[in-house]
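G., the chain you wanted modeled:
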Amino acid sequence: MSRAGARHPGADDSIPSSSTDTMGDRPEQLYATLNEYLQLEHKFQPRLCLPDESESGEVTIGARDGAAHVLRCLKVWFDLPADVLISAINLFDRFLTKMKVRPCHVPCITVSCMNVALDEHAELTKQARTVSIEELVSVSQSACTWRDVARMSRVLADKLALNNARAVTPLHWLRLVRALAAAPAPQESELVNLLEIAICDAGCANARMSELALVIVYHQLEKQLTEWARHKDVSEELYYLYEFAAQLQAYCNMSETSLLRTRDVFRTVLSRYEGRCAATQRQRLVWRLSERTLKVLRPTDRLTSLLPTIEEQHLATDTTPSRNRTGSESSESEETSDWPRSPVLPVYCSN
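Predicted structure as tokens:
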């Protein structure tokens, strides 16, 4: 790791716009993007306050995590970029931060977040969407119609003011911190996988995005340095690594207490995830599809390619809608009374 890679974030550089989400490898471009992200971070930061158990029909932490895993299943099923998943979960969390949502609205909101994220990604990349609303509805088994999803998508766009600015998500921060930390950096795919594990858990939902990105990058760098230490002396690399981390922490106004708390929460989430992966006994995936859905999903190799990946997530899934389980209809506000609703969340997961 070269010393040039650990330049102080306070370097005097001009700021080009990063609205196209492209970051050059020149330091001045990276630090310009850092300044821009810092200005926007608070605007797109979720602040969830969800109960562990619902006593009066509120959305619980478990329901939020279930929705996040539904989104991750959709991402795997349709082979979507990580940008779409991270954006969809960020939309979902921000919407729950701003609006009082009933459990019966959650399935439609979940699919609508993925629908909006797909539209945003198509607009950004100037490419046509590869997944239709009808396909999202069929695969998610959310018991709502494509018209419901289209209407809820408009509600999302209105309440979150999506036409004003593109969101800065934890994935943007992750790529920026990786680029700033200097080469040789961890593989982006490894970092993105860790980020997906983290944001699918409500424990990391309220973590400051810049702090979470820094924690994940340096978690992987520490593992990498441990491997290097077996073959060569890495004392100099280790010195510059932590020197830069301290500089970035100070520049971004990350308090020691907050950063350590984010690190501890991330390690707890990762440890719990790895513990489930190491379990010798676990419930097998149950994915029930109707004949109508199977016709939509031809060819069927989509299903066979998805199953091993989802089993690694250890999700106990039953996507057959239950007509006997409905969300609470009480305490509906006038604003949300006509929102699309579904009788059951497709995927439930325990914390």
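The chain has a mean pLDDT of 78.

Shout if anything looks off.
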